[in-house]
Design brief:
single chain; mainly alpha; two-stranded antiparallel ribbon
């Protein structure tokens, strides 16, 4: 609960920074501030926003943990009431740390984000069955990094969305920080190719979507959601677009026929995925008429 409270406050702070980046002038900002001022809202008179934000930031700093002496990410929870050692609340989840890293980027704390991306890249699976998969979570035990690829999750299934989030966060970091050398590095480019080998795999269905089993995304619990859910396919679209951006960045210094072929394949896959989602997921008046005719 404490972490959810902190996350909501951090989202509020991030939204304020976003408004500045969008270029709102002072008049627009004043009008917005007036519209959402305390006199127009039903709040307690004793509420102190600055104090709450300060406390939220202090709690947030407590969630950051070190690996090899460097801050690398935020744990799932500071302390769980049951204090059950079998629970993994003390681990760093890739999926959960995406909004954390975005907030840190807005605060220009790029070193933590780069360390987080590097550790995830180091733990990217090279085993035959899970080759290219990023860990759902990781933790340092006795000086050794241990990644979870689904063996300790509730559903005992590898998370699909954790791997799809990494290229998006990597491109966002490279674009905002200007650290193009990291995006062009051999380790990043190799990680992208391993992930694309896993994702851009032809299936008998002949569709560009990514099929996932139940428990493979969001909360890793059975939700009776499987197949090609929209949230996973949209995430796949963003993942592939980010991979293209990172590969184009590498192409500036290194021309390769294999890289050009992969760029063409990935771009075509993105276009096919977009058209597929617009056709089968986008609800139009024609779609509603077809649904009404069905018994």
């Amino acid at each position: 609960c404490n972490l959810l409270y902190i996350i909501f406050l951090l989202i509020f702070i991030f939204a304020q920074s976003l408004l500045k980046e969008l270029g709102l002038n002072s008049r627009d900002s004043n009008e917005m501030a007036e519209r959402f001022s305390q006199k127009n809202l039903r709040v307690r008179p004793s509420s102190d926003e600055d104090k709450i934000v300060t406390n939220a930031k202090a709690h947030f700093e407590k969630t950051l943990v070190e690996i090899s002496g460097e801050l690398v990410g935020s744990v799932a929870a500071l302390e769980h009431p049951t204090k059950n050692l079998k629970l993994n609340y003390g681990e760093i989840f890739l999926r959960d740390n995406v909004p954390v890293m975005i907030y840190l980027i807005t605060q220009k704390r790029y070193d933590i984000v780069k360390k987080f991306l590097s550790v995830c890249l180091e733990l990217q699976s090279t085993n035959y069955q899970t080759r290219g998969v990023f860990p759902t979570s990781f933790v340092e035990e006795k000086g050794k990094l241990i990644g979870d690829y689904g063996q300790r999750s509730i559903g005992r299934i590898t998370s699909a969305d954790a791997s799809l989030w990494w290229p998006i966060l990597c491109w966002f970091y490279v674009n905002k920080s200007g650290d193009h050398s990291f995006g062009k590095s051999q380790s990043v480019q190799r990680g992208i190719q391993l992930l694309l080998d896993l994702v851009l795999h032809p299936t008998f269905e002949g569709t560009p979507v990514l099929f996932v089993p139940d428990c493979a995304f969001m909360i890793d619990r059975p939700m009776d959601v499987w197949g090609a859910p929209l949230e996973v396919e949209v995430l796949l679209h963003g993942c592939l677009k980010s991979c293209i951006k990172l590969m184009e960045l590498s192409r500036e210094d290194h021309v390769s026929r294999l890289l050009d072929q992969r760029l063409i394949l990935t771009s075509q896959w993105v276009e096919d995925l977009r058209n597929f989602l617009l056709k089968h997921y986008w609800v139009t008046s024609q779609t509603m008429q077809i649904l009404r005719r069905r018994p």
